[in-house]
Design brief:
Number of domains: 3
Shape: elongated
Strand order of the largest sheet: 17-23-20-21-22-19-18
Number of helices: 5
Structural class: mainly beta
Number of strands: 23
Amino acid sequence: MISAIKVLNSVTALGTDVSVGSDGIVNIASVETVDAYNVRGVSITVPRTEVSGVVVVTPTAADNLPYTFYINAFSMTTGLPKVINVSFNSGAGATATSIANQARAIINADTDLSVVASGTTTLILTAKPTQPFFVVGGALGNVDSYSNLPLSSTTPIATNIAATNNTGSGGVNGRSVRGSVAYLQNKYAYSANGNALTQNELALLTPGFFYTEVVISYISTTPSGSGAFKGEISTLEAVVLVRANSDGSTTYTTTNYNDLLGTYGTITGLQAGYRVEGALITGTAGALSGQTQTVTSGVLATTDGIISGDFLVSVTTPVVSRVISVLSNTTYVSSNTTALTSASTINGFKWRPLPL
């Protein structure tokens, strides 16, 4: 059961929107606090755009023979599964183009089908928007629009008919959208007249942007005096939707996004079973020799300072450096050979075991 939903259109520095305190209490975007001991899982679903699947059907020309196959797709009107059978006889002097034309005419006559046919000597089947998946098949086999086959591989699906979805042969692997405003409002049952849990927050989603979906699952014990059995354990979910970008790509443009969800972020750490504490480091980057990085102004060997496994991030031109070992209060061995940006603000992200 969902206990809370929070939309983050902006992210605070150092990952404080979702973080674990030294007492082991998880602050979930100020809408829920949970003992880290009770967290049972953290799922992170990054956004992506929809891609319409494409299957290429190749007929072998033969005169006066039956051609039969099916398309298992969806109705654009109802969204329910829909199957059509494509069956016809070739004529005298048949060519690949004439056979493909016969099939195209049958398929495109059904405008409710979630697949459209194009091409010349081949039959190019393309999924329509919002329904990226379908299957083409016959008596000998089938090909779907979402599983990539080996390069140039084709599958016989019926007599004199083969099909492929491989990108090297003109196919496209379909995929569904994730993280769009419409997707999230539909998933979490948004309605202008809906309940307060979803209505108030989901109305804050910014049109034209994609969001990373974070679900933190935890157990809770029913307190005494409630309507349920006392001591009953329930599994709850807190949902945090973090604005990522406007194009559904893997480049996240929201300021401080990586402080939450980057390789060093507080949510990423919680998912891996760590308490991540972000802190501004007073000091600037010095020289890098191989993988040995210096930092001015003794910033490493402070109380509960940076240790092996922590991250240092220079903010101005983002460079992420994981600490392999600390050599002194101003020198450490880095996980990479890219220097922290000189004179840049440096943030430290300390990865510590969750309190028991």
